[in-house]
Amino acid sequence: MIRLLGVFVWIVPATIWYGGRMILSGLRGSTEPGCMCRQGPRYWARQLLWISGVDIAFENIEVIDPTRPQILVANHTSWYDVLALSALPGTYLFVAKKELAKIPIFGRAIGGCGHIFIDRQDRTSAVESLGVARDLLENESPTIIMFPEGTRSKTGKLQRFKKGAFVLAVQTGVDIVPAAIIGSHEVMSKESLKITPGTITVRFGTPIPVEGLGMDDRNELTERAQAAVRELQADGAPSDQEIT
Asked: How crowded is residue 197: how many other Cβ atoms within 10 Å of its Cβ?
């Protein structure tokens, strides 16, 4: 309960501070690696993790290549999944549900810095959002982060993947990087506000190439990526390497 209180006390002023600076950075069109649009989320997440007593460990992080575009797909059981992935190297952009855009300061900050909101209930709007992601992948070199389950799992078990990330991969020819986030459900589950200190491990798998695939292959690609994430979840106990 003390950690939860600490988060509540910290999160408003920190969001105002970092969010305000991100908004200014976005208005200026700054995209340099050291700009607040790129570093703000890392600072914000790092401090929140520290208050929560949570460490992040990366396994096989070398598959993340900051010099080329990639689409990272991961399981989703907790808000702490986002915080864990905020420590990724290079330029990354989240595809987030549109409801987050309504959060004061926070929504404008991440939207102004290029993160993409998607309306899961409106197919036309969702297609337009994926079009924005496609343009970014074709013209820049970000890691686009997507949670293909569409929402957090209540039980921690992997849910069926939706196809949006894999349609995007086929359209752009960008490799899929599967990742398993292990331990975040124990830190904070969807059904609880309790924060339990611990270590969240992000285990990255071998990138899945999409070169030569067409739209007829999207279902098979979706199933292959889901199987890869499931295998990563089951692949032995987490190690202690690359703790942030």
From this structure: 12
